[in-house]
Specification:
The protein is α+β, with helices and mostly antiparallel strands. The protein contains nine helices and seven strands. Helix 5 runs antiparallel to helix 6 and helix 6 packs antiparallel against helix 7. The relative contact order is 0.07.
């Protein structure tokens, strides 16, 4: 955003005209009328010098727009210096014509005039080079930042595309189990699945979704998983969202819950899962705890997609605005996520 002005050429040229206008007017501003009237030669040489200043404008842009990009940037330093010498000689020829026009009563001496104009010429080239190098550096940084944003956007799209098939695979497994059991919960389960699919296929394509919608989809997912596992599993959930209008990356929280169900109901004698979500003043605290056995072999072919995926998404979407802590000690697997919402 800081380099947005680079894209507005009209604004850049207005700044240039304003600065050059001030520079060209300085001799008139600081010269009194008494000085002008006192010496006719002074007035003629003043007009000569101010008209010559317009030549420095040309030198400035010739160096910035042509000589530097064409020769200096390409390592052709000898040609660059040679063209600068030719430029100075050409400026002196124009200055001689101006000299003969403004002060015809004086004889033009090339060496003396060159000494008089060499410092302004070198100063103009130096300022022009500084301007061009600085401008190109800002422009390069802006283009690199834009390219990085596009790369991140592409990577996020790829990461999100991994979530949907993985998520759908596990939900369909739940439906298969209910069909085999001929459970009365099949119909409400299909309705929940329909709601989840609508969220997954349509709303999750948006860059952000309402926190309220994300929480509702999370609850639907938990309800579906509850039907799949044994009734002796101790499942505790607590959701407290005070500001539902906040937005969040879609399907950001489900992988943590999915991981808990996958590994929290395996070899443990007393399976237990605790899910807690609190939001207040734009701060989201999300905690998932589940009992687990260290040699749990409950992983399937799709394992490894969820958590590495969500960690990467968090680092890209919420840099310096999230804290993710994962602990697997004392028979518990604990995920604690603190998120600053926008």
């Amino acid at each position: 955003m800081k380099t947005k002005w680079l894209e507005n050429r009209k604004f850049v040229w207005i700044i240039h005209v304003f600065i050059w206008g001030i520079i060209l007017m300085l001799p008139f501003i600081f010269t009194s009328e008494n000085d002008k009237l006192k010496d006719r030669d002074f007035l003629q040489f003043r007009y000569l010098d101010n008209t010559t200043n317009f030549l420095w404008v040309g030198v400035f842009y010739l160096n910035a727009l042509f000589l530097l990009p064409r020769f200096f940037y390409n390592g052709k330093y000898v040609l660059y210096v040679a063209f600068q010498v030719l430029t100075f000689l050409f400026v002196m020829l124009l200055h001689r014509a101006l000299f003969l026009y403004f002060v015809p009563q004086h004889h033009f001496i090339f060496v003396r005039s060159s000494q008089h104009n060499l410092i302004p010429f070198l100063f103009t080239v130096m300022v022009s080079t500084t301007y061009k190098v600085t401008y190109d550096r800002f422009k390069t940084d802006a283009e690199a930042a834009a390219l990085q944003r596009e790369r991140l956007k592409t990577e996020l799209s790829f990461l999100r595309s991994q979530v949907s098939p993985h998520f759908l695979f596990n939900v369909l497994n739940n439906i298969v189990a209910l069909v085999r059991l001929k459970s009365a919960e099949l119909e409400p389960t299909v309705i929940r699945l329909s709601s989840l699919l609508q969220y997954m296929l349509y709303e999750s394509d948006d860059e952000k979704v309402l926190l309220k919608n994300e929480v509702e989809s999370l609850q639907d997912y938990i309800d579906l998983q509850k039907l799949r596992f044994s009734p002796n599993m101790n499942l505790q959930t607590f959701f407290d969202v005070k500001e539902e209008w906040h937005s969040i990356e879609p399907m950001l929280l489900i992988p943590f819950v999915e991981n808990a169900f996958k590994h929290g109901n395996g070899l443990s004698e007393n399976p237990e899962i605790r899910i807690e979500l609190k939001e207040s003043n734009g701060k989201l605290n999300f905690s998932v705890r589940n009992r687990y056995v260290a040699n749990d072999n409950a992983k399937d072919k799709t394992s490894g997609i969820g958590l590495p995926n969500v960690k990467r998404r968090l680092s890209l979407l919420y840099p310096n605005r999230h804290i993710l802590e994962i602990d697997d000690s004392a028979g518990w697997y604990h995920v604690d996520l603190k998120l600053t919402l926008q």
